[in-house]
Amino acid sequence: MAERNRSAVLQKLKFLKVYSVLKSELLRDPDFEFDEYSRRWVERMLDYFVPRGNLKKGLSVAKSYRHLKEGKEVTESEDFIASVLGWCIELLQAYVQALDAIIHEAQLPSDKPYRFELSKDAKVTANDGIFLRSYITRILIKHLKGKPYYADIVDLFNEVEFQMGSGNMIYLIATGYGEKDLSKYSMPLYRRMVQYKITYHSYYLPAACALLMSGEDLEDHIDAKKILVEMGIYFQVQDDYADCFGDPKKTRKVNSDSQLTTIGTDIQDFKCSWLVVKALELCNEEQKKVLTDHYGKDSPEAVAKVKALYYELNLQRAFVEYEAKAYQKLMASIESHPSKPVQALLKSFLSKGYKKLELDVIFSGLRIS
């Protein structure tokens, strides 16, 4: 365990060194005449938005590529390119985070001081987003153009960006306009929203980058894509459960932006969460009225009413049953995949998630941890 942790730390430090290289290149882009102020602006913007959270998405590219090499040595050049692709994924995430702050009128993360007071203006954040997205293109041109998989990588990033935008559209249609309406919420909507808004860029994109680096055709790995999408939904259900029932000190819930979040706001935010969708499936008319009257209201009393209903409906047990069945189905799908290296890649993603929540769940005096 100690050796594994040491290796993970070293990989992250190596990954961060590549960020420094890329940032230095961007700050000396020959196609723009930087002055002192513009260079400082871009540097602070990059440092604020990009190297955030646990960086798991970005780090997953190199890790996935090593699995596909089947124990063969990964050259310094290959490792560097995998890290470059990893940082392009982190830039894509940063771009979406900037847009989310505008679209959802959300506050930007506060674990780092924002660069300038003026940047609280949405127009400045929007311009930051344009920069962040354009840097992906510039990095890919500089480091991947001429490689046999360059065009496929560009297509992949464009495809995933479209899917993320589609996911945000689904979210806005369901929750962004008009009166709060729980009748819109259903399990098919939940799965579709998570699939497009989260799974493609968080799970499929890193694995697909590694497959393309390995010379694979993504059309030959549709089954792996489907497994990664299902895996992403499975992980999001865990995060939704942690929001209500998890202990922040134990679960350290991380949202889709790879940032540690405050547990316990999904109810107040009227989120289309697995818990509320499952509750709507199980509740009677009287219980549904409790949800309708209290879900989405920012008061301790309303939150307590909703949580009490969750306990009444025994959603803890429903989650435990879901988690076990989903894991077994995922493992069966992975083990039926014809490629052993792809199996190893998929298992490496899945191993991070099963029973990752350290939960205190009580069923009539029976403690399940």
From TrEMBL:
Cross-referenced SUPFAM superfamilies: Terpenoid synthases
UniProt feature coiled coil, ranges: none
GO molecular function: (2E,6E)-farnesyl diphosphate synthase activity; dimethylallyltranstransferase activity; metal ion binding
UniProt KW keywords: Isoprene biosynthesis, Magnesium, Metal-binding, Transferase
GO cellular component: cytoplasm
Entry superkingdom: Eukaryota
Cofactor: Mg(2+)
PROSITE patterns for this protein: POLYPRENYL_SYNTHASE_2
Record-stated family: Belongs to the FPP/GGPP synthase family.
Stated name of the protein: Farnesyl pyrophosphate synthase
